[in-house]
Design goal:
This protein is α+β, with helices and mostly antiparallel strands and 385 residues long. It contains twelve helices and twelve strands. The protein is globular, with a radius of gyration of 21 Å. The structure holds alpha-D-galactopyranose. Residues 15, 19-20, 22-23, 154-155, 157-158, 330-331 line the site of alpha-D-galactopyranose.
Length: 385
């Protein structure tokens, strides 16, 4: 590695509301956070990518930029780098490789998108080393599809906010066509992120459960579209434009099996909550935003069935400590919760979580790593060229 290697940074994200609906083409409302993946790198003359990680838990990994990059075994961290590389090399066939050292202060498998932050950082490093630029929206879309290399059928939220976030703002992300619309966070709001201590490995154990959801949503969408007399490829936004939510829910009750009806109800009600939450933030209506977080959690727990007892408990404790509302964030099955509270209550909420959740689990010593106030950060960037 040269004396002053180039450096890129890609933040993690916390999704404020709009969970498990990006792959249905419905808007979501996340923000980037202050914790990030950073990659120091030097360009190479050949096609090799040589990766090291400052964390000894992640062994070094080397591969060659070819049209079909063979994956490392499932669950290997290097597959996220391969995902970025594979997507780029199919678009720009003559790319040269890099020597890269990765470091991160983002908790892994905690619902804060450490994996997509690695994908985005890797992509920016390879592009920069080759003097190639891409329009941000095009790169977001390329990497959202590219990350499916790891076997997860994710939507486009993570890569889009990681690349497109604005400091101090949450952003509504619309899909097809992709666009980001920022809303400034009110100065006296605080979003607290707290990890459940349960790893949610989307490319590992949770993969099957995650991938089942887009399939179920698609099946439900097709059946309802047909009932409405629409083409069976009509999208969720088309269904929502064709009929009010109450009518869609009625139809779901008479058309869909129990599980599909529940999945469908989550998707269409969560879509409505995103619009309401964006308005509540723009008005500074903290209480309204909090109620929407609570309703989202209930829907994710009961209808979408992606919660976990530890997440439910964190949500309860945050509310009891004075949060206006709280919910699981990210894919679920473990990972983190996000809670909203007035700035003046943030320290008290964190102290309560420490005393009632982390201390009984012997984790109070590292509470600063597990639970923190999220600061709305800017998107990924080349820090040093
Ligand atoms: C993961 C996926 C996202 C999104 C969330 C759930 O983070 O990568 O695309 O589906 O889960 O909202």
């Amino acid at each position: 590695m040269g004396k002053t290697p180039a450096l890129v940074r890609a933040p993690g994200r916390v999704n404020l509301i709009g969970e498990h609906i990006d792959y249905c083409g419905l808007p979501v409302f996340p923000m980037a956070i202050q914790r990030s993946v950073r990659i120091a790198f030097d360009a190479r003359r050949d096609q090799q990518i040589r990766l090291a990680n400052r964390d000894p838990a992640f062994p070094a990994s080397t591969f060659t930029l070819t049209q079909q990059i063979p994956p490392a075994p499932a669950g290997n961290w290097g597959n996220y780098a391969r995902a970025a590389a594979q997507a780029l090399v199919q678009r720009f066939p003559d790319l040269r490789g890099i020597d890269a050292i990765v470091e991160s202060d983002l908790p892994i498998a905690a619902g804060l998108s450490s994996s997509s932050a690695l994908v985005v950082a890797m992509a920016l490093a390879i592009l920069h080393a080759n003097g190639v630029t891409m329009a941000p929206l095009e790169l977001m879309d390329l990497l959202a599809r590219g990350e499916r290399y790891v076997g997860t059928a994710g939507g486009g939220m993570d890569q889009s906010i990681i690349l497109g976030a604005q400091a101090g703002c949450a952003s509504r992300i619309d899909f097809h066509p992709l666009r980001l619309t920022p809303t400034r966070l009110p100065a006296d709001w605080r979003f607290i992120v707290a990890w459940s201590l349960v790893h949610a490995e989307k490319s590992g154990a949770a993969r099957q459960a995650y991938n089942d959801r887009p399939r179920q949503c698609d099946e439900a969408r097709r059946l309802i579209a047909t009932r409405l007399g629409l083409q069976d490829d009509a999208s969720y936004p088309t269904l929502l434009a064709a009929a009010p939510v109450a009518k869609l829910l009625d139809l779901a009750g008479t058309t869909l099996s129990g599980v599909l009806a529940k999945r469908f109800r989550h998707v269409v009600t969560e879509g409505a909550r995103v619009r309401q939450a964006e308005t509540a933030m723009a008005r500074g209506d903290l209480a309204a935003f909090g109620l929407l977080l609570d309703a989202s959690h209930q829907s994710l727990r009961d209808d979408y069935e992606v919660s976990h007892p530890e997440l439910d408990q964190l949500v309860e404790l945050a509310r009891e400590a004075g949060a206006a509302g709280a919910r699981l964030t990210g894919a679920g099955f473990g990972g983190s919760v996000v809670a909203l509270c007035p700035a003046a209550r943030a320290a008290a909420v964190l102290a309560e979580l420490e005393a009632r959740f982390y201390a009984p689990r012997g984790a109070a010593g590292a509470v600063g790593r597990y639970a923190f106030e999220a600061e709305a950060s800017g998107g990924a960037e080349v820090v040093r060229g």
